[in-house]
Amino acid sequence: MSDGLRESLMAVYERMLSRYGPQGWWPGGPGFEMMVGAVLTQAASWANVESALANLRSAGALTPRAIRAIPQDELARLVHPSGYYNAKARKLKALAEYIGERFDDDLDAMAHEDVDTLRNDLLGVYGIGEETADDILLYAMGKPSFVVDAYTRRLFWRLGLAPAKGSYAGYRAPFMQHLPKDPRLFGEYHALVVRHGKEVCKKEPVCEGCCLLEVCPTGQDRTGGSASLASSDSEEVKPV
Ligand code: SF4
After folding, report:
1. Which of 8, 110, 184, 237 is 20 to 30 A distant from 102 in Cα terms?
2. Does the beta carbon of 192 sit less than 6 angstroms from any atom of ligand 1?
């Protein structure tokens, strides 16, 4: 294990936690609504996802059984606010079929499944890619499976902690291999990355006053200083 990389990742986490505080994303247990949200949030803002979830709630369609029973065109109408509604209706049907066939709709039984097995299963369900699978595992199942999204890629590239391979797996590996397998840490970390990416490390970053400026080579380049974050001694992560 690379203690240097672990220290760097934890330093980034602690600085963001100190600046923003806990983000309160933790849902408190297995939840089908969280799984539906993970599918609906693909290429959609959370505000639009909440609108679609409200429609599903009003229609009594937030259980796997109800999703299976409802006609697909009606389901598409309910999730319309989240965009790509026909595709997302099909994806929700596929997820509900999987949960019914594999776990008889018992989400507690699903949550007791081994994380790697469950991840492989989910990646085999229509419309569920790696980010959605990890969203489901982490926030709906409470499993230690780190979520990588566009904010994660942008931030860690700018911090000089981008992986040699720019794949999803390449970005995810340092977190999975060097941080404690703690779902609360992973959940809070991802939420903080999203907060930081939306408010500060945006497409055009606001480096002055950023809580990561002291450890960010990109920020130091932009403001004329020098970063002090220990560079990784891991082979899979390279300084930018
Ligand atoms: S210093 Fe700038 S580039 Fe670095 S994390 Fe902060 S906002 Fe992003």
Report:
1. 184
2. no
Q: Which residue has the tokens 């974050």?
A: 229
State the alpha helices, DSSP H only, in 104-216: 107-111, 115-123, 130-135, 150-158, 168-178, 183-199
Distances (CA, A) of 98 to 67, 101, 123: 12, 5, 11
Give the pLDDT confidence of 143-177 residue by residue, as tens digits.
999 999 999 999 999 999 987 668 999 999 999 99
Closest CA to ligand 1's atom 4: 219
| Phi and psi at residue 163, to the nearest 5° | -70, 155
8: left (phi over 0), alpha (psi -120 to 50) or beta: alpha
CATH of the structural domain 32-140, one choice from 3.40.50.1820, 1.10.10.10, 3.40.50.11720, 1.10.340.30: 1.10.340.30
Region for 109 from its dihedrals, namely left if φ exceeds 0, alpha if ψ lies in -120 to 50, beta otherwise: alpha
Domain coordinates of the chain in residue numbers? 3-24+148-223, 32-140
Look-up: residue for tokens 């000089």? Answer: 160
158 lines ligand 1 (CB under 6 A): yes
Q: For ligand 1, what atom is nearest to the CA of residue 222?
A: 2
Tally DSSP H helices, then E strands, for the chain. 13, 0
- Helix axis angle for 115-123 and 85-103, nearest 10°, is 140
CATH, domain 3-24+148-223, list 3.40.50.720, 1.20.1050.10, 3.40.50.170, 1.10.1670.10: 1.10.1670.10
